[in-house]
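To the wet lab folks,

You asked to see what we're planning to order before we commit. Fair enough. Below is the target structure as tokens, and below that is the sequence we designed to fit it. If anything looks off to you, flag it before the synthesis order goes out.
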């Protein structure tokens, strides 16, 4: 049996939908998986350490990253509430990167979002090299997160892979998701690829499955070795039969971010931010 790739990996946002999904898969890559969230992540499983800490807690974050080799950062705020976004996605992310610098962590996999570029027209193929066009305050904080990752790579050589995750659900549930969907299995493959790649540097990559009408070209991130295996195509006939065609002025037909180009409802959960 081969040795784990890492001694200790930290997973933040462990109680979120994607954190819960990734948790057992990350343990396969390390001797010890440290799972953390602002709320109790539940009892530690075999080979795990459990911590409860808020991103806004600077001293808590310094302690959280002690003896960590790599971070999979899926924590943060996904509501269109500026005070919460400022605390979690701006201040909290800076605490994470500064704690990584102080503790000598050299690789961070960061959950960014397709809403960093959501104001591009639907149907236009773009790449990570195209300028950001966030569709909401949440998306704008993800642009900040990518910029912070770039700074900490250029100044401190901390490698970061910023994952502009599309619509991460067990299955696509609408016409827009025929283009933006990423299966849970492909998201797991993406995170694993970024952890195992010999070289990450500063990389931005869209989290999307092998969809026929995908809007995002990931060829510039080929060095990460991500090859999606799933596709929204098997769901196309069912979705098109069960949902009406989009009106020409429907935001889902006009913009890659869909309805997020309008003000988001503060009551939406993290499951809606795709």
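Sequence we intend to order:
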């Amino acid at each position: 049996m081969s040795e784990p790739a890492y001694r200790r990996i930290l997973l933040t946002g462990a109680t979120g939908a994607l954190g819960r999904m990734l948790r057992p898969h990350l343990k396969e890559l390390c001797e010890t998986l440290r799972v953390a969230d602002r709320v109790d992540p539940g009892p530690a499983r075999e080979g795990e350490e459990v911590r409860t800490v808020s991103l806004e807690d600077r001293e808590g974050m310094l302690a959280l990253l002690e003896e960590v080799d790599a971070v999979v950062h899926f924590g943060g705020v996904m509501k269109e509430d500026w005070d919460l976004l400022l605390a979690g996605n701006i201040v909290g992310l800076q605490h994470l990167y500064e704690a990584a610098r102080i503790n000598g962590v050299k690789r961070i996999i960061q959950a960014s979002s397709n809403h960093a570029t959501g104001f591009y027209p639907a149907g236009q193929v773009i790449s990570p090299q195209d300028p950001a066009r966030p569709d909401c305050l949440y998306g704008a904080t993800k642009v900040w997160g990518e910029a912070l990752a770039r700074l900490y790579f250029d100044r401190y050589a901390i490698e970061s892979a910023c994952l502009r995750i599309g619509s991460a659900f067990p299955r696509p549930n609408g016409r827009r998701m025929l283009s933006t969907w990423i299966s849970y299995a492909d998201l797991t493959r993406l995170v694993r690829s970024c952890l195992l790649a010999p070289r990450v540097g500063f990389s931005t990559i869209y989290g999307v499955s092998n969809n026929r009408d995908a809007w995002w070209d990931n060829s510039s991130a080929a060095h990460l070795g991500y090859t999606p295996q799933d596709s929204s195509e098997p769901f196309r006939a069912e979705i098109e039969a069960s949902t009406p065609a989009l009106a020409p002025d429907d935001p889902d037909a006009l913009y890659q971010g869909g309805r997020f180009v309008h003000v988001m409802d503060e009551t939406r959960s993290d499951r809606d931010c795709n």
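Structural context that might help your review: The helical segments are 17-27, 58-64, 82-103, 137-156, 177-180, 184-196, 236-242, 251-254. The first helix runs from residue 17 to 27.

Thanks,
Computational group
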